Amino acid sequence: MANLFTRIRDSISQDLHEVLDKKEQKNPLSVLNHYLRQCEQEAEKVRKLVERQYLLKEEFTREYREAEQLAEKRKYQAEVASKAGESDLYEFALKEQVHYEERLERIRNSRNEAERHLTELEQKYEEMKHKLKDMHIKRMELMGRENIARANHRINKVLESGSYDSKSFSKFDEMEDYLDRLENKVNSEYYRNTIDSRITQLEKQANVSENSL
What we know:
Helix content is 95%, strand content 0%. The chain is an all-alpha fold. Helix 1 (2-26) packs across helix 2 and helix 2 (28-84) packs antiparallel against helix 3. It is rod-shaped and about 160 Å long. It starts with a helix and ends with a helix. 3% of the residues are buried.
């Protein structure tokens, strides 16, 4: 039974990969957009981790300063108790001083490690931002290529006579015939009006000549 489930799982996984491969071949821009969104989400997570690491380093710094002040305070108190002959108070202050100095060393090491990790995270985050920028540029390049491909496809569809049926081209022919008829009509009317105007003028001149005789 376990082998059966394993074969079913592998078969489904294989089918899924085949679908994704076909989708990538069909629309690489869509796949790139999906991958880009995933990378942006991961980059945002890293940015938040960088911020948390920076806050952690600042917290270590505050703890270090506090422990340093307390160690100095207990050191001073131990000196005062020693001069006053207060052995019990001296022992307590000295013990506290040692405790805070040990804490200082521990915090110093932790802060140095936090700073080192912060530097590594910042560098990796910068690399991710560069990668994302390169991917954005790549997407724009693909969009440009896709636009050119679509434009050329439509241009070829118009220019290639085999891409339209006779009915589509008959519309162009009808339009050309209509424009030709319209042009001839305008020219004829202009010519006729010109002749009428010229004959009328000649008739007036003839009448004037007869009346003068």
